[in-house]
Amino acid sequence: MYTWEELKQFVDSCSRCPLCRTRTHSVMGRGSLQAGIMFIAEAPGRQEDQQGIPFVGPAGHMFDQLLSSVSLTRDQIYITNIIKCNPPFNRDPSEEEKAACIDYLKYETLLIRPKIMVCLGRVAAQRIIRPDFRITREHGTWTERKGYWLTAVLHPSALLRDPSRVAEAEEDFRRIRQKAAELSIL
Ligand code: URA
């Protein structure tokens, strides 16, 4: 098994797909390595690419707002992405890019062993929960698989585009908090 630092080095020097030629920085996940809750989004955005840190742009501020609505902070959770490099023009990651990158997420999961995995948005939910997952209808629902509790919430960027849905997302975060309490995680 690798340490987080070793994994970060692999991610930083990765050339498994063509995104390595356009990235400024790859973006390894961050947060507590003892976290019971792992959040998984799709891919770093432009500001994340500049800084090498997940969710530091406007979507990151929205994410922090949702965390703080249930009295959580980033140092109590772990947050990462399905792919670790920014796709140009923030397009959806391709199947090839996801396939090339998914082992890093598997190793992060083995290292952290979260009890709850929360997908942020459709792309992550369709990769982690089910290929036909409908984020608009099914966010906030729970699936137990191989000892992990899986759920999905609306992507923070979607909430920036449509703030009328923030209340729904806050409700989902309350349920995540509740599930964490039931599982004695926090
Ligand atoms: N959007 C994502 O999906 N991931 C990030 O890290 C930032 C924005």
Brief write-up:
The chain is α/β, with parallel strands linked by helices and 186 residues long. Helix content is 42%, strand content 13%. The two termini are 26 Å apart.
Level of helix content?
Answer: 40-55%
Ligands, deduplicated: uracil
Could you give the order of strands across the largest sheet? Answer: 1-3-2-4-6-5
How many helix segments?
Answer: 8
Low-confidence stretches: none
Strand runs, count: 6
Global mean pLDDT = 97
Task: Specify the structural class.
Answer: alpha/beta
Strand and helix order: HEEHHEHEHHEEHH
Q: End-to-end span in angstroms?
A: 26 Å
Main beta sheet: 6 strands, mixed
Q: Any idea what the shape is?
A: globular
Report the β-strand fraction as a percent range. Answer: 5-15%
Radius of gyration, in angstroms, nearest whole number: 15 Å
Structure in words:
It holds the Pfam family UDG. Keywords: 4Fe-4S, DNA damage, DNA repair, Hydrolase, Iron, Iron-sulfur, Metal-binding. This is Type-4 uracil-DNA glycosylase. By secondary structure, the chain is of the alpha/beta class. 42% of the residues lie in helices and 13% in strands. The radius of gyration is 15 Å and the shape is globular. The site of uracil has 11 residues, from loops.
